[in-house]
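stage 2 :: seqdesign
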């Protein structure tokens, strides 16, 4: 395979957003031709510029859903969701569809600039915690550079905090990822509940 030049410029795109990606972020990620829009090499044969298509998940938003109301009867289909995105409490309602999600961390998908759907993230109990790596069930996971860390309480309520403010001795910590690592998956949300 190719190596990245020291000053390589990498972008990941979806239909509306871009994310700047550092080369180390792509370690272990399977980059198929469907995920690469453009790849330029420098004079040494190293990748100098690369444009990816939804290869890392870094263009999505990740939130914590605090309330779900879904009605699906023969006469009515509607839904309402309260969620926290980056510390801001928001509400989304739809009179024509339900998303079959539950309270907890989720990815947000947009279509034509509007919220289109939520999808719950997978996760587990954390046994090792650092700024760059988290261990869940014996498996090490990279931590997103844009990870959201929430202190959670009954309700459910959640409050944005910093990773440096939590530890495994004082908190029950869970971490949530968006996809398998070979598809660019990493820890997007961390929740900590006081022991």
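stage 2 :: out
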């Amino acid at each position: 395979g190719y190596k990245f030049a020291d000053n390589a410029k990498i972008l990941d795109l979806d239909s509306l957003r871009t994310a700047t990606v550092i080369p180390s972020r792509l370690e272990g990620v399977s980059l198929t031709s469907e995920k690469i829009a453009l790849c330029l090499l420098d004079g040494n044969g190293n990748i100098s510029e690369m444009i990816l298509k939804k290869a890392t998940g870094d263009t999505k938003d990740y939130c914590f859903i605090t309330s779900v109301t879904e009605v699906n009867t023969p006469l009515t289909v509607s839904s309402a969701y309260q969620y926290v995105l980056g510390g801001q409490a928001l509400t989304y309602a739809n009179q024509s569809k339900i998303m079959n999600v539950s309270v907890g961390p989720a990815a947000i998908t947009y279509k034509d600039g509007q919220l289109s759907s939520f999808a719950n993230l997978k996760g587990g109990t954390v046994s090792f915690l650092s700024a760059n790596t988290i261990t869940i069930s014996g498996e090490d996971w990279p931590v997103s550079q844009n990870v959201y860390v929430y202190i959670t309480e009954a309700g459910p309520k959640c409050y944005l905090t910093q990773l440096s403010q939590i530890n495994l001795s004082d908190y029950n910590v869970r971490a949530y990822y968006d996809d398998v690592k070979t598809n660019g998956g990493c820890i997007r949300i961390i929740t900590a509940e006081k022991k």
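stage 3 :: structure notes
- The mean pLDDT is 93.
- Residues 150 and 191 are 5 Å apart (CA to CA).
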